[in-house]
Design a protein that fits this description.
The chain has 213 residues and is mainly α. The protein has one domain. Helices cover 81% and strands 0% of the residues. It has helices spanning 3-25, 28-37, 39-54, 61-89, 91-114, 121-142, 147-174, 180-189, 193-203. The protein is flat, with a radius of gyration of 20 Å.
């Protein structure tokens, strides 16, 4: 299996592990523990563990994986605290979003498993979204979700999938064949780009001012 397929599949299955942790945290015993920890505490742990993971970009793979474990636990805990509220307040959106994300995950995983030499990031995005659209249409037929809600969910998930394929392409440019674990961790570390990129843009030197005569 090629390097790009291994990185993509390992990251997809790590996301599946994160979802499994969320389901564990939303059980009554888990929510009781998280209630004592508090929303601020869980998010603080998630942010600190992500920062620690980001600081180990050049560290050995076993150390990166070791730091990833508390990041996964704390991130799943932070999300789990909001999951019951969202499911109660926005049941249609929550169910539709979960279905659409699951469809996109399945489409991306199948593409990475079965795409041959014609594997490409644009092709992966298109195939994944076509697969997702078909399943979402079927979902709207058998449920009470309205078309506008389904379309809004589809647009959000399409943005997520596009970013994932784009970031995967960028990661593969800076990692070698033997750095599968580090490449997978990079896909999580790059979440900090949403914070760091605007800061880097603001700190860029200004262009030469136009001289008026």
């Amino acid at each position: 299996m090629s390097f790009v397929k291994r990185v993509g599949l390992w990251h997809l299955f790590s996301l599946l592990a994160l979802v499994s942790l969320i389901f564990i945290w939303v059980r009554p015993q888990g929510l009781d523990f998280l209630a004592r920890l508090g929303v601020e505490g869980s998010w603080l742990l998630a942010i600190c563990s992500l920062a620690a993971l980001a600081s180990l970009r050049s560290a050995p793979a076993p150390l990166q994986f070791l730091v990833f474990i508390p990041f996964a636990l704390s991130s799943a805990a932070a999300i789990a605290l909001w999951t019951p509220f969202i499911a109660d307040e926005f049941p249609d959106y929550a169910t539709g979003f979960a279905w659409t994300v699951g469809s996109a995950w399945t489409g991306a995983a199948l593409y990475h498993m079965f795409a041959g030499r014609d594997h490409s990031f644009v092709g992966g995005f298109m195939v994944t979204m076509i697969f997702t659209a078909v399943l979402l249409i079927a979902f709207t037929i058998v449920t009470d979700i309205i078309l506008s809600q389904a379309f809004a969910i589809f647009v959000v998930v399409a943005g997520m999938v596009f970013y994932w394929f784009y970031d995967l392409a960028m990661v593969l440019r800076r990692r070698t064949q033997g750095e599968v674990t580090a490449a997978v961790m990079d896909l999580y570390r790059d979440a900090l780009n949403f914070v760091g990129f605007p800061i880097r843009v603001m700190r860029m030197p200004k262009g030469l001012k136009r001289i008026r005569y």
